[in-house]
Write a structure and sequence with these properties.
By secondary structure, this protein is an alpha+beta fold. The protein has nine helices and 21 strands. 30% of the residues lie in helices and 24% in strands. The strands form six sheets. Strands 11, 14, 17, 18, 19, 20 and 21 form a seven-stranded mixed β-sheet that branches. Strands 1-8-6-3 form a four-stranded antiparallel β-sheet, with helices on one face.
Length: 432
C-alpha cells in the first residue's frame, strides 16, 4: 500500500512548514533517509527526509505553506494507484471521527504517534544503527543526497568535512560552512605577469538617451505591494503578542560608567586569540549576575515558578525576517573567548537561517544589543519563557560630573524588562 507523507513538526513551536523546494521529482526512486525537500519552519530552513523506500508517486503541494500533519506527498511502488491511497487516508480519518466520536486533536495526535512508530520500525529494519562517532558506515561516507550533489559541483572531498547530522551524517549546512571557511582563508597571490601591449581604444560612440517612462498611476489610487508572511515572521508576531499582552512588563533603566570595562577590554585583547567585543563582556557579566540572583534566572509556569540551575543566555540576532535568538549555554562558566567564538559562529549561521531549533531553545535570560547601530536607549519585549530581557544601548562619550568636577566619560544605558508575576522591583534592582 502506498504511504502518505505528511508535514512533520520540526520544532517545538512549529504550526506549519513552508515548502521551499523539492529535491526529488515525481517518478524518482527514493530510499529511507534521502532528502525529499527543503522546508522553511518558524526557526530555520531544514531538510525533510523520507522514512520509507519506494517511488515518489505524487507531490500534493509543490511549494508554499502546509500545516503540521498536512498531506504533502505519496510514496509507493511504481505504477501504484496513489489516488486510492489519498482517498483511503481521507475517508479513513473521517470514519474514525464519526464512528468513535473522537476529538480531531486527539485523533491527530494518535495518527502522528502511529506514523512515528511505523517510521522508526521501517528504518530500524532497513539497516543497523549508525555509528554515532564514525564518519563512515561500511566504508561509505554518510551524507545526504543534496550534500553529495553540492560536493560534486564544488569538487570537494567529503572526507575533509565533519558531519553535523544524526550519527555524523554530512548535510547541506556542512557543505555551506566548509565553502564559507574556504572563502575566508587567504589565497596565494598570483604570479606577476608581463604587461601585454594593449590595443588602442576605439573611440566611444555616443548613445542616444533612453526615453524616460513616467510612473503611471491613477489620481487618488493608493500604491502598495503585499508580501505574504514567512513562517518566521508569523511566529515572531504571535510570540511577541502573547508575551507583551499576557505578561505584565515593567522596566528598570540604569546608566553605567564604561571606563573600567574599556580599559579591561584593551588589556584582554592584547592576549586574546580573537577580538573580544563589548557585547561579550555584557553576556559574561549578565551570566555571572544570574548565578548570584537565581530569582531572575527563573520562568513563570502558570501554576508554579521554575528556578533554572543552568545559566543559558540568549543573544538576539537581527535577520531579514526579524530576530533569531541563539543560546549560549552555561555562559557563567565560559570564558570571554569561548563566548565570543560561540556568539560569532551562531550569529553567522542565524543570518543564513542555518541554526537548528535546539540551538535556539533552553534560554533562561536574553540580551538585545542595539548599540552597534547607534541606538542609545530602548526597551525590549521579554522572550518567553524568560523572566527578563536586557536592552543594551551604545557607549556614548559625554560630560560627566564626579566629586564636583566635570570631565569626559563613556556611559552606556541598559534597560531590564521584567515579568512582574515573577520578578519584582526589589529583585530586579539588585541584579543590575
Amino acid at each position: 500500500m502506498a504511504e502518505v507523507i505528511r508535514m512533520p513538526r520540526m520544532s517545538d513551536t512549529m504550526e506549519e512548514g513552508n515548502i521551499v523546494e523539492w529535491l526529488k521529482n515525481e517518478g524518482d526512486t527514493i530510499e529511507a533517509g534521502e532528502t525529499l525537500a527543503e522546508v522553511e519552519t518558524d526557526k530555520a530552513t531544514m531538510e525533510l527526509d523520507s522514512f520509507v523506500d519506494g517511488v515518489l508517486l505524487h507531490i500534493e503541494v509543490k511549494e508554499g505553506p502546509v500545516p503540521v500533519d498536512g498531506i504533502i506527498a505519496v510514496v509507493g511502488k511504481e505504477g501504484e494507484d496513489w489516488k486510492a491511497a489519498l482517498e483511503e487516508e481521507q475517508s479513513g480519518n473521517g470514519a474514525t471521527e464519526k464512528e468513535e466520536g473522537q476529538a480531531p486533536e486527539a485523533r491527530e495526535q494518535e495518527a502522528k504517534e502511529s506514523r512515528a512508530e511505523e517510521a522508526v520500525k521501517a528504518l530500524s529494519e532497513k539497516s543497523p544503527p549508525e555509528d554515532p562517532a564514525g564518519d563512515q558506515e561500511d566504508g561509505r561516507l554518510k551524507a545526504s543526497p543534496l550534500a553529495r550533489s553540492m560536493a560534486r559541483e564544488a569538487e570537494i572531498d567529503l572526507r575533509q568535512i565533519k558531519g553535523s547530522g544524526d550519527g555524523g551524517r554530512i548535510v547541506k549546512r556542512d557543505i555551506e560552512a566548509y565553502l564559507e571557511q574556504q572563502k575566508e582563508q587567504p589565497q596565494p597571490a598570483p604570479a606577476p605577469q608581463q604587461p601585454a601591449e594593449a590595443p588602442a581604444p576605439e573611440p566611444k560612440k555616443e548613445q542616444p538617451a533612453a526615453p524616460v517612462t513616467p510612473f503611471a498611476f491613477s489620481p487618488g489610487e493608493a500604491q502598495y505591494e503585499d508580501k505574504p508572511l514567512s513562517q518566521m515572521r508569523k511566529t515572531i508576531a504571535r510570540r511577541l503578542s502573547e508575551s507583551k499582552f499576557s505578561a505584565p512588563h515593567f522596566y528598570l533603566t540604569i546608566e553605567i560608567d564604561m571606563a573600567k570595562v574599556m580599559g579591561m577590554r584593551k588589556r584582554v585583547n592584547e592576549v586574546a586569540p580573537s577580538k573580544i567585543s563589548f557585547n561579550d563582556f555584557i553576556v559574561k557579566a549578565a551570566a555571572m549576575a544570574l548565578r548570584r540572583h537565581p530569582a531572575v534566572n527563573a520562568s513563570w509556569q502558570d501554576d508554579h515558578i521554575r528556578y533554572h540551575k543552568d545559566v543559558n543566555v540568549g543573544v538576539a540576532v537581527a535577520v531579514d525576517e526579524g530576530l533569531l535568538v541563539p543560546v549560549v549555554r552555561y555562559a557563567d562558566i565560559k570564558t570571554l573567548s569561548q563566548i565570543n567564538a560561540e556568539v560569532k559562529e551562531k550569529a553567522g549561521r542565524a543570518r543564513k537561517r542555518r541554526l537548528q531549533p535546539e540551538e535556539m531553545q533552553g534560554n533562561t535570560f536574553t540580551i538585545s544589543n542595539l548599540g552597534m547601530v547607534g541606538i542609545e536607549e530602548f526597551t525590549a519585549i521579554i522572550n518567553p519563557p524568560d523572566s527578563c530581557i536586557l536592552a543594551v544601548g551604545g557607549i556614548v562619550e559625554q560630560a560627566v560630573v564626579e566629586q564636583g568636577e566635570i570631565h569626559a566619560g563613556h556611559r552606556i544605558k541598559e534597560t531590564l524588562s521584567c515579568e512582574h508575576r515573577r520578578v519584582e522591583g526589589a529583585q530586579g534592582t539588585p541584579f543590575r
